[in-house]
Amino acid sequence: MLTISRIHQKTWPALLTVCLTLVIWLGSKAYYEDWFSDPFKYPAKAASLGATILMCWCVVLSTRLRPIEAFFGGLDKVYQVHKRIGRWAFFLIVLHPIFLSAHNFPDFLVFLQELGFLEPLGDRYLWGHNVGVATFLMMAGLMSLTLWLKIPYHLWKMTHEWFGGVLILAAAHVLIVNRDVTTYPLLRIWVYGFLTLALASFVYTRFFYRFYGPRFDYTVSEIAKHGDVIQATLRPVQEKMEFKPSQFVYLVVRKEGITPEPHPYSIASGYNPRNRIKLGIKQSGDHTRSLDRLERGDPVLLYGPYGHFSDRFLSGVGDCVFIAGGIGITPFLGMWHVALHSEERLDPREAPEQLRRMHPELIRTWRSPVVSLFYICRTRGDASFDEDIRQEVAISRFHGFKAFEERGHHYECYITSEQGRITAAYVRERVKGGLQDKNIFLCGPSPMVASFVEQLSALGVRARQIIVEDFNLL
User: Fold this and answer.
1) Residue 81 burial by CB count (10 A; 0-12/13-18/19+): exposed, middle or buried?
2) Prior bond to 305 cis, omega within 30?
3) What is the pTM of this model?
């Protein structure tokens, strides 16, 4: 079932291109003085043009290209925009046939008949109409699976790939109908440009990403299970992946009994000299439960890294509050590691450019923000990473750093079954100096995150202070 984040995302580029499309269309009709005699055709055409552009956006946003991720502020934000405009496209396309057939009212039977397949009788427009009906039915079926039914991830991903067929049928419908888009040169260039870009994006994502995307070969070096959470430590086979704390990767395992589709998991570790990557995986679906078969020595593929969750933290501007719910603790572990210690400090003049960019915490001029970390779990048994968090504290002391409390850091494992529901007011009381000048990072179940955003706003915390990791595919 599709869940849409309640956190505002950057949807204005898609909406702007829809508006430009409608301006080009209406401008073309005015220039050629080619107006419809049937007024219902205006909302019908506007709906189809808008839906087409939004569908193209959905496909382009699925490419995981770095410039797109950077523009939207992280791949989690990209997918939230993708889901939102995908839903808009569906509801718009529903309006298209309704308004096309609206002139038949009050004859409801004829209205319904014109919504379905028609005998072509050699008429090109009727052939295009039938292709349009097929496009709508295919999209409606796939969107129904996404919007209202909860299906296993691997089936959801497979059906999602069929949206390429919807795009191809939509392009065929435009070509065969041979009306406004093909008639007006500027509109034709604009819409065909979007369709070509979307088709190229689909081909890249479906057939070439697996070979040319940012991929790295790793091997499982350690595997442990804590309750329903698997902790898998991976080592590089050859080239290591450079990652910033809090980033995530797509994991692909090709082993009998484990579904092979890529799944996103946050990196639950910081920079380390041995180049190890640790993943924390909560067993909540078919794929994650099948990872019980994962063993030491198994080869895996990692695609990435992705994510910009730690950018504000690494900027060193403003102290930070980390609020993590359950498995949402994983992106914070790397930042907690950075806040407490670094294995080495380099002169910025001697450090390679990539190292300065990826790991500012290793540069002598970088100062860690003071961090207050709240790890929220239902029971103590659910706190799978409490030991890792405390171990970072012990290791930092071993490396000669002051006690983390003396440096102003704070850690609390909050158990809701014992302490009740945690609130933003409680967090404010526990953070030295309150929340007004802090960067507040949230990651966890969507209801928890949405509730905290609402509570923080009520306490006067500004929206730009709140940073959310909102990676929820379904």
Assistant:
1) buried
2) yes
3) 0.87
